[in-house]
Amino acid sequence: MIEVFHPLLAHRFGGVIVAVFIGLAGVFLLKWAQRSKSPHRGLGKLFAWIVCGAGGLLVVGALVPVVTLAYLRSQHPPPGELIDVGGYRMHILAEGEGGPGPTVVWIPGAHEQGLALHHLHVAIRGEVRSILFDRPGTGWSDPGGFPRRTATEARELARLLERSGEQGPFILVGHSYGGLLAANFARRHPEQTAAVVLLDASPPDAFVYAPVYGSGALEELARAADREGLAKVFGVWGLRGGAMAEPDSELEELLRRRDGLLADVGEAMAANRRRAATSFAMASIFREFGAGEVTETAPGLVVYDGELVDLPVYVVIPDGGAARVVEPLGLGEAAAARAVNFLERARVRYLDVSSDARLIHTPPGTGHNFPYEAPEFVVELVLGVVAEVVDGPI
């Protein structure tokens, strides 16, 4: 139900508007109770005062993030340009003079802001032109329209690149969920695509048919994102204890490494994450795979076998296989074996989208988040793809 209110709640003053409406409803109820002849008018007045009080508290709570975000924006202005893509603006950071090779466009996993791959962007911008961008609702981009859909974001990216004056064709590099967007862009704009590098990209199969989590887990992530968004809207997000990694766990180590790699933009990223729009955009895009949505969205979402024709597609998957993902789930032997089999096959699903697809394994010991575990490997790979596009296969 909350999806209906995403456009309002994602707006900077959305929480204030909602809170004022609740307060006015309380005033209306109070006036009604005062004129009522009912024997229960006392309870009516009490309820009206409660609603008025709640509205007042919510107004104060909603004003806190408005003021906080205004201050943080002044401290962390957008490093790139804000480009109108059709009534709302998207942020693009394009750097590097480049040589004869195509420009590289980075797309982070989940529904993250562009700075999530800033360390890779910095590593190559001295040799090629490199682009980071914020999907609507993330980073410095405006919320854009709802619901969020991958097909929509592929069109928005094309419009952003065109209106910013960037010249294609481009090499699209997408990690995880970002790989899904990269493949969708390439399908719609093959003339603007020189190559696609899929860093353990998420195929739709992994969400719809996975035997261990599937679309049900995405729905729970969407609900969690909605709750987080509401907490941000009414100024209580900073008071809630988020889910933390267990001390000395693999996840905690990964987060430490990621924070270290992104230390120079860490404060700006943290400021951007305080936006409620970020949470609601993520909730909306995750619902694309929901049971009531996927049958409608799939034709515009899935890149079918052969649809990229002969575009160079580099399918990069972790060397360790899927067992590393499945083991922490605590499944029985038979269920674990089935899950590993499915995930390992889903990971190479993109090999069938082009006649020129190549499979590449990451360094030993790395997992799904290898762009943070082995950034040097990713940089070398992408620069190699640039050279190959310019000079042809070695």
Q: How would you characterize this protein structure?
A:
- With 394 residues, this protein is of the alpha/beta class.
- It folds into two domains: 2-75; 81-207 and 258-275 and 297-391, Rossmann fold, CATH 3.40.50.1820.
- 50% of the residues lie in helices and 11% in strands.
- It has an eight-stranded mixed sheet, sandwiched between helices.
- Strand 5, helix 6 (177-188) and strand 6 form a beta-alpha-beta unit.
- Helix 4 packs across helix 16 (375-391) and helix 8 packs antiparallel against helix 11 (276-286).
- The chain is globular.
Task: Looking at this protein, list some descriptive labels.
16 helices; alpha/beta; Rossmann fold; 50% helix; 394 residues; globular
Write the topology of this structure.
Elements: H1 6-9, H2 14-35, H3 41-75, E1 81-84, E2 89-95, E3 103-107, H4 118-124, E4 130-133, H5 150-163, E5 170-175, H6 177-188, E6 193-199, H7 205-208, H8 214-233, H9 250-261, H10 266-273, H11 276-286, H12 294-301, E7 313-317, H13 323-326, H14 333-347, E8 357-361, H15 370-373, H16 375-391
Parallel strand pairs: 3-4, 3-5, 5-6, 6-7, 7-8
Antiparallel strand pairs: 1-2, 2-4
Task: State the gist of this model.
The chain is of the alpha/beta class and 394 residues long. The chain is built from 16 helices and eight strands.
User: What string, H for helix and E for strand, traces the elements in order?
Assistant: HHHEEEHEHEHEHHHHHHEHHEHH
Beta-strand share of residues: 5-15%
Fraction of residues in H or I helices: 40-55%
Uncertain segments: 239-246
Q: In the CATH hierarchy, what is the architecture of the largest domain at level 2?
A: 3-Layer(aba) Sandwich
Structural class: alpha/beta
How many β-strands, per DSSP? 8
User: Looking across the biggest beta sheet, what order are the strands in?
Assistant: 1-2-4-3-5-6-7-8
Give the CATH H-level superfamily of the largest domain.
Answer: Alpha/Beta hydrolase fold, catalytic domain
> Averaging pLDDT over every residue, what do you get?
89
CATH top level assignment of the largest domain: Alpha Beta
CATH topology of the largest domain: Rossmann fold
**How big is the Rg?**
23 Å
Number of helices: 16
The N- to C-terminal Cα distance equals 54 Å
Count structural domains: 2
What form results from the Cα inertia axes?
A: globular
